[in-house]
């Protein structure tokens, strides 16, 4: 189970690092042209950049504290933060009637909740 939690946390970290980097470094107009990227038109460029920074911080928090054994309780806290981001993403995409993207958001939400449950509960870093 510990290995499964590590794999899922690393997968989520990779996804959120890439998504966050795209939001931070790509212009809003470029993001809007991507498949499923129309949501950025509903938000300011500043918010999109801030969301990207938060996603990168979440990615770092999912792996680095445990890997370096420095305050590993940050891993489940980061997973809760990532889950909160995905709840917001699911709400936004469902309001836009992009139901395929809602399923993707809910999948990432489920994975983040699983990591939070596993690291807060039975497989916490001691």
TrEMBL record:
<feature type="transmembrane region" description="Helical">
    <location>
        <begin position="99"/>
        <end position="120"/>
    </location>
</feature>
<dbReference type="InterPro" id="IPR032808">
    <property type="entry name" value="DoxX"/>
</dbReference>
<feature type="transmembrane region" description="Helical">
    <location>
        <begin position="74"/>
        <end position="92"/>
    </location>
</feature>
<keyword id="KW-0472">Membrane</keyword>
<keyword id="KW-1133">Transmembrane helix</keyword>
<protein>
    <submittedName>
        <fullName>DoxX family protein</fullName>
    </submittedName>
</protein>
<feature type="transmembrane region" description="Helical">
    <location>
        <begin position="47"/>
        <end position="68"/>
    </location>
</feature>
<dbReference type="GO" id="GO:0016020">
    <property type="term" value="C:membrane"/>
</dbReference>
<keyword id="KW-0812">Transmembrane</keyword>
<dbReference type="Pfam" id="PF13564">
    <property type="entry name" value="DoxX_2"/>
</dbReference>
<feature type="transmembrane region" description="Helical">
    <location>
        <begin position="6"/>
        <end position="26"/>
    </location>
</feature>
């Amino acid at each position: 189970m510990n290995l499964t939690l590590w794999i899922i946390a690393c997968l989520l970290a990779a996804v959120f690092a890439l998504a966050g980097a795209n939001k931070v470094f790509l212009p809003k107009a470029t993001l809007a042209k991507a498949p499923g990227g129309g949501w950025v038109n509903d938000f300011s460029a500043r918010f999109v950049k801030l969301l990207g920074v938060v996603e990168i911080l979440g990615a770092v928090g999912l792996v680095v504290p445990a890997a370096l054994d420095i305050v590993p309780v940050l891993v489940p806290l980061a997973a809760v933060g990532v889950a909160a981001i995905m709840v917001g993403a699911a709400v936004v995409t469902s309001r836009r009637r992009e139901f395929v993207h809602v399923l993707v958001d809910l999948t990432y939400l489920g994975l983040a909740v699983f990591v939070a449950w596993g690291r807060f509960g039975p497989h916490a870093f001691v």
